Amino acid sequence: MNQTNFNLIKGQMPKTDIDRLMEKRITKESTLPPLKPLFKMFDSPCFYRGELTADCGKAKSGKTTFLSLIMSCAIGQKDLLNLVRTSDDPLKVLWIDTEQSQQSTQEILSKRIFPMADNDLNERLFAFNLRGMGYEARSKMVTIAINHIKPDLVIIDGIKDLMTDINDAVQATIIMEHLMALAEVNNCCIVCVLHQNKSEADRNMRGSIGTELTNKAFEVFQCEMADESGVFKVVQTYSRKQKMKQKLYYQLDDNGLPTVCDNYCEQPRDEKGRWVKKTVNLDLARFFNDAMEGRTQRKFNELMAVAMKKYGVSDAQAYYRLVREAEEQGIIRKMEHPDTKDTWVELTDDNALPF
């Protein structure tokens, strides 16, 4: 007996396409569950249940290191490097590694994730290395693992290995739709790791799968080298909810564990992506005098743009730090324009009246 006849016997009319469509209707009175982030980073919610998150970057840009930090915070210490787990209880994590050797996966577990987590919760972290499988088998195993383990957080490193051609738009659409359905049904966050294009100037994720992931992801994190000495940077480049303003700077200690770089001044690059020598031992008086370009007063944002260009200060946080230091030394003072309410900066060694 088919399903239609069975429904009729029970006195139920079979569902039509219109019925299924109307079930998906959203109104302002619809009762919907709130979005639930797994973490907060710099007090900004991130890594939401039921959604996809993208982790991208060039080769060797710290993508897996950043995700090791996320996994460690999920299963162990609640607060790590400006990242805070939103639940008191540890989360269940599924890590699918398709790129590295089995030995590398195990080394990251034993020498990075568990030491940062400060525990050895094997029952909370399920790591699988699928590098030796074909793409169809890998895709099937990902589905089986998510449905069986029921994790809170899923890491797929890397997503391109679930398809034959990263430029196949049809495969890319199918994979993204499937992962979105898995995230929604299992109420978990699925993090997809993907490389960016090789050109230093091109920050887009590779191929059709990168385009589709950009369109479907709830948020995107970008990992990169901040300078040639080994400092890494993580920035949230996109979010459908609350955009994260701060950037995470870290470096690896002698044990290979990430440590935060506070008040870091990022090393700039030229238009071809080559490192430019970073300014050291900055003369703050000269710095702000040069940025004023012969004036005694300037709008805060205008001054910031000029100063960053002249001295290669490519990170806003570093500029704000320089402003604070110059204020403390009495070199400049900030003030509010009485009419426009804009913030201005004035050199304090000049006797001109404000405005």
Give an overview of the whole structure.
The protein is an alpha/beta fold. Helix content is 34%, strand content 22%. It has helices at residues 3-9, 17-23, 63-75, 102-117, 135-149, 169-186, 207-216, 284-292, 300-311, 316-328; strands at residues 37-41, 44-48, 52-57, 79-80, 83-85, 93-97, 125-129, 153-157, 189-195, 219-225, 232-239, 248-252, 258-260, 297-299, 332-336, 343-347. The strands form three sheets. It has a nine-stranded mixed β-sheet with strand order 7-6-8-9-3-10-11-12-13, with helices on both faces.
Question: Would you kindly provide a brief summary of this structure?
Answer:
With 355 residues, this protein is α/β, with parallel strands linked by helices.
Describe the protein's topology.
Blueprint lengths: L2 H7 L7 H7 L13 E5 L2 E5 L3 E6 L5 H13 L3 E2 L2 E3 L7 E5 L4 H16 L7 E5 L5 H15 L3 E5 L11 H18 L2 E7 L11 H10 L2 E7 L6 E8 L8 E5 L5 E3 L23 H9 L4 E3 H12 L4 H13 L3 E5 L6 E5 L8
Parallel strand pairs: 3-9, 3-10, 6-7, 6-8, 8-9
Antiparallel strand pairs: 1-2, 1-5, 4-5, 10-11, 11-12, 12-13, 14-16, 15-16
Helix pairs in contact: 3-4, 6-7, 8-9
